[in-house]
Amino acid sequence: MQMPAVVLLSGGLDSATCLAIAKRDGFSPTCIAVDYGQRHRCELESAKNIAAAFNAELRIVSVDLRAFGGSALTQDIDVPKHRDESAITSEIPVTYVPARNLVFLSLAVAQAEVLGAQDLYIGVNQLDYSGYPDCRREFIESFGAAANLATKAGVEGTALRVQTPLIDLTKAEIIRLGTELGVDYGLTVSCYDPSDEGLACGACDSCQLRRRGFEQAGVPDPTRYA
Fold first, then answer.
1. Which of 13, 15, 62, 174 could pair with 35 as two cysteines, CB 3.0-4.6 Å apart?
2. Whole-model pTM over 0.90
3. pLDDT value of residue 215
4. In what order do the strands lie in the sheet with 3-8?
């Protein structure tokens, strides 16, 4: 019998690869997608398609982070475009959503406790990313320790493990790995500012990192650009 696991599935490239890895590792994953009031809502539809492709259960949880604001992903704030590589990797951009991964991981922990799952998968990466503080190893390790102090499972000795298999991989390495595991990246959405039809802008930080990743991986880019 396969053991349960929880996978945070945003509909993007990294989280789709995480789901493929969880399946490879022999788990029966339950995916959590979060409707947090994001402007790029097409990613929720992508999450549905990715979960279906891997025959995994998907649960969409609503937590409206628009109530706090402070991000171009939840407010009427311009998404930065055409930033150079040094700016992307050294500055925390306005697309950072306050406490997003802290909230998402807490929801995943709640689901894991109900399912009796010990393993949580999240596709954070601290190499090719937009400078978000909640994608760093230090945060993940601290959160894991807090989760085991704050949960019935942790207190009773069933330690929760936050799995971050992509954390030290480049975007190209992630794409190569996912391709080997059968991920259809044409189902994924990475753009922070897609068109109404779901076409990628090609100029935001996420689009630039994604495009460069496919180029460096030597894998055809299936992204539909505006």
1. 62
2. yes
3. 97
4. 57-62, 27-35, 3-8, 119-121, 161-163
